[in-house]
Every structure is written in structure tokens, then in C-alpha cells.
Amino acid sequence: MKAEINELITRVGPGTPCGALLRQYWQPVALLDEFDPVLDPRMGARPVKPVRLLGQDLVLFRNADGSFGLLDRDCPHRGADLAYGRNEGDGLRCPFHGWKFDIKGQCTDTPAEPAGSTLCSRIQQRSYPLVERAGVLFAWLGPEGATPPALPALDCFTAPATHSFAFKGLWHCNWLQAFEVGIDPAHASFLHRFFNDEGLEESYGRQFRGASLGELDGQRLPMTKVMREFDQPDISFAQMPYGLRMTALRRLNETITHVRVTNAVFPQTFVIPLSETMTITQMHVPVDDTKNYWYAFFTSFAEPVDKATMRNQRLEAVTLPDYIPKSGAHNEWGFSAEEQRDRTYLGMGESDINVHDQWACESMGAIQDRTREHLGTTDKVIMANRRMLRQAIDAVANGEPAPGLAFAPQAAPRVGPDTVDGIAPVSDWEAWWRNAVTAKRQAAPWAGAGDVAPPEAP
To answer: How far is CA 51 from CA 96, 103, 105, 274, in A?
Structure first.
């Protein structure tokens, strides 16, 4: 790849072509958990957070009535930092001269001005639309005055609160290399390879530790065994209105194949199976060019999500209040040569594979130098996504609509998208996986889970 193309597809700040594209889509800005005084005691006294998103410095605050506001962080008076503003329950007041702003950015008070002054009525701080779904606040940073599209009707945003859970973490690298690891169907057989399989009863909430759907010779196969012993997947993809559907087939014998269907929801979301009845929808959200937050949404199609267990599993790996991983380049991501020799392919832990992906992304550098890479056949999905990204950047630069779920008619209908990880007959795996996901939806206890049409054939 030419250096100028690498710059084009990775830089996201204001005024950049890729930044203009990403601003057409809703972006997660914070977990609601970040305003929970139990997790961050500061929020009990003053629910105000500085945030950085797509290279912009913003301030997020909550009013006494529970409503939220997201404003540019520099006060429009003389540029002081509104992240230190006084939260008065019905707006945020700058401590420099007392100018006050409501959640829509309207100035409501300029106390030092002469009596009768109407200055405040003419002062409007830039504010950004917010929507809450699945325990996450989403912001739209598109052109001022433009109407944002509806938040896409993905499963993770339409499932009830009882059947969904969200978490996040910070990675010190560019958003695109993080997203590309997530959509790569081949890496799981190596990066996440475990030399031993655990009992399936301990697998709740842990990726690749559960069983694949179906049986082989009357036995349920742990995903770890499949990924370890069948490491040459036959990878294909299909263009979908929302992005790409990826299929990886790992043939187990002459008549049985393992089928793993995942999705890339353009431009920065992927949807993968966590277990037979739970999916992960993960978004990689640029803080700026060299950092990104991953937001993971766990959606259950069976029993309610055990949020306490899921949260506690993941809190062990981060420091609050900013969800910064305890592992990183500073401590070699917890690398153990003994573990690499005897227990895992990578040597960076057996309980949290997120660290594996973190290492792969961060070890590439803050922004991967794609002029030095050599892609192979198994990178066909990566190449297809890059083509889509370049075409979309060009389209928006030329005044055309952003593709996929930024386009209202495509965002509104339920799209799932569906995933599966299971064992199917070689002769009819396509019908098998479509029937499997239809059965999963029909058995789901929450209303609306079955509203998505059966998956189309690849």
C-alpha cells in the first residue's frame, strides 16, 4: 500500500476525508456505567466527563433529571475548559466568567454582563445529538444542522436490557488496525490457540471457551479444539447492505465441517458468536489517530445476561475510571515464555483473549505502516474492506451519501446480523446455518428477536 493511501484511511480528525466519513455514523461516547458512583465515586458529586472522540475534545454531562449533554469543550467566551465547569443540575457553568449552557449548547446566563443584556441569547455552543442504547451513549458528530440517520436496528440495540450488556477498553493504536484484527477469520486458530481444552461448564462469558453448536460422533466440541486442530479455513465473503458477511469453513472429516459465520458492519463494527446463544457486537471507536476504545455489546438469545459476572470478569483487566487495560507494552502484555511453550500459542494469558488482540494491534505501532505488509489469500476480507473504505471516503468527499447503515432506509430495518459457530454437514452447510440461526431467534424469550428475515444464501 502506498503511504498516502495509508494516511487517507487512518486519519480521522476534523477536516480529514476519513474523519468526514466516520462522522456520518453514530459513535459510542460513554458507557452509562461511567456515571455510576459505585464505579466512579466522582460522579456522585459531579457527573461531568471530558471525552475525546474522532480527535475532538468534548465535555459530556448529566443534568439532575437524567438528561445528557455533549458540547465542544472550549467555552465560546474565551476558550476555557468546560470539563471543569460547574454542574448545576440544569446546565454547565464555566467557572471563568460564569457563562452557563444547557444540554443543547444554548447559553442561558452571562452574569457579568450589564443588566438587560441579551448577549446570552446569541451565544450557541456546538452540541451533538445523543442517543442511549444498550447501556451506551451514542453521539453523532456530523455536519452542524444536518439530520442524523436513525441508530441502526442491530440486535444489540433492540434486545431488552435484561438480555444485553456493554463494556469497553482503551487500546493504544489506530482504529483501523484494531478493526481489521476483529474481521480476520484466520487469526483465531493461532493468536487464540490454547493447547488444552477446559470443561465447558466454566465457559460462560469467555470467548472460544464454549462449545460449537452441534455434535461430532455424539460429542460437543470446544471451540478451542476446533480452532487448534483445523487451522486452514476456507474463507469466503458476501457483500451485504450493511457491509460484509464472512464465512470460514474448517472441514473436520469427509462429511462434517465446522462453520463460523461473522459480519463486518461498515465502517467499524463486527458481529461474532460468543456462544451458541450469545453474540458480541464490537465497535472500534477512534479517540484520535493513535488510540481507540473498543465497545463490546453482548446479546443473549436465551437466558438473561448475568451482568455482574460479565462485568466482574472484565473489570479484572482494566483500571477505572477510564477503562485502561492493566496489560500493555509497559509490561509486555503479560507475556510468559513458559506459558507460550506449554499452554498457549501466544503466551499472554488464558482467561482474557482480549489481551491477545490488544497485543496484535498495539505491537503494529500507533499507526500500522501498511507499506511494509505482505498480504496472503486468507487476507481477502481485509482487502475487500479496504476497498469499501476507500470508495466510501471518495463518495463522501464528492458529496454523495455515506454507504451502509448511515443511509436511513438501510438503518431502519432489523438486520441482525446473524452469526453462527457450529458443526454442519459438508453437503448442506448453507441451509444448516440458516436453519440454526432461525431456530435460535424463534426460541429467544424476548419480543422482536424473530423479526429478522432468514439469512440470505451467500
So the answer is: 20, 15, 16, 30
First CA to last CA across the chain, in angstroms? 29
DSSP string, 96-107: TT--EE-TT-BE
- Residue ranges of the alpha helices (H) in 326-367? 337-342, 354-362
3-state SS class at 297: strand
pLDDT in tens, 60-101: 999 999 999 999 999 999 999 999 999 999 999 999 999 999
Specify whether the CB–CB gap between 322 and 170 falls below 8 A: yes
Element containing residue 273 per DSSP (H, E): strand 269-273
Is the pTM of the predicted complex or chain greater than 0.70? yes
Q: What is the DSSP string of 377-437?
A: GGGHHHHHHHHHHHHHHHHHHTTPPP-GGGSHHHHSS--B---EEEEEEGGGHHHHHHHHH
Quick one: how far is CA 142 from the chain centroid?
A: 19
Residue ranges and CATH numbers for the domains of the chain are 32-139 (2.102.10.10), 155-451 (no CATH)
Average pLDDT over residues 196-211: 62
**pLDDT band of 411, cuts 50, 70, 90:** confident
- Residues 338, 344: contact at Cβ < 8 Å? no
